[in-house]
Amino acid sequence: MTAVDPFDGGWRATRTPLLDLVRGAPIRYEEGWVEVGPQNLLAPYRPPTVFGIGLNYHDTVREMGREIPERPYLFPKLSSSVTGPYGPVEVDPAVTLRADWEAEIAVVIGRPLRRAAPEQALAAVYGYMAANDISARDLQEADGQWVRGKGLDTFCPLGPWVVTADELPDPQDVSIRTWHNGDLVQDGNSKSMIFGVAELVAYCSRWFTLSPGDVILTGTPAGCGDFRTPRLSLTPGDVIEIEIDRLGRQRNEVVAPRY
């Protein structure tokens, strides 16, 4: 069941899966209203493909001591890494000792797109949601590419909801914040993006056909734990929270593996 149309603390329910709605299916409402609390909210849906963008904020590049990239730094984020906005994030110390947070705006594609110009790209966007692109920095460094470091199970909390594009007409002026165990660690704005949302969507469509439901993660502002002195990493027992204006708030507890 998908919960849509918030009203007076309740949500009108539909049996239409959100991914079907993104693909253009009509909404079929259930009778009555349902009460929804944080404990009930899963990821809005599991995207077919998740594209990540690295090094896309001026302040982050300065923080890392890197050069401004000439083109978007593109990597895959596995669909199996998706989890809910209030679910546990599993960090196994036997796998990674440098798990890090990255609060990001996620772009939801709403129609097929191929070789689009930037001025055409936003017309293909269905909406936006909050994302945390959790990253195992030690695996990234060891591999030289980012599939393992970005793709571990539960390393991509999404939600709590999708805001349609008409409700966020300017994705280039959105505040992004992160708290680690109650301490504010990220406080940025999408104004600092090197490549804006339209450029990123167009760039991805140059190489791949984007399909309804695909997600593009747009990079994170400064304040990640791995670039601090001393380094700060996620460990079991931590709580990581992110908040993106108009896109909602997440709260994920970090847990040890359950096996």
Structure description:
The protein is an alpha+beta fold and 259 residues long. It folds into two domains: 1-36, no CATH class; 41-255, Alpha-Beta Complex (Fumarylacetoacetate hydrolase, domain 2). Helix content is 15%, strand content 33%. The chain contains six helices and 18 strands. A hairpin with a 3-residue loop joins strand 17 (239-244) and strand 18 (248-255). It is globular and about 50 Å long.
Summarize the structure.
With 259 residues, the chain is α+β, with helices and mostly antiparallel strands.
Number of helices: 6
Strand fraction equals 25-35%
Basic shape? globular
Radius of gyration: 18 Å
The CATH class of the largest domain, by name, is: Alpha Beta
Instruction: Supply the CATH superfamily name of the largest domain.
Output: Fumarylacetoacetase-like, C-terminal domain
Q: How would a textbook summarize the main sheet? A: 6 strands, mixed
What's the number of extended β-strand segments?
A: 18
With strands numbered from the N-terminus, the spatial order across the biggest sheet is: 5-4-16-9-10-13
Head-to-tail CA distance between termini: 30 Å
Question: Mean of the pLDDT scores?
Answer: 92
Assign a percent range to the helix content. 10-25%
Which parts are unreliable, with pLDDT below 50 for 5 consecutive residues or more? none
Keywords: Metal-binding
Family: Belongs to the FAH family.
InterPro entries: FAH (IPR051121), Fumarylacetoacetase-like_C (IPR011234), Fumarylacetoacetase_C_sf (IPR036663)
Organism: Streptomyces plumbiresistens
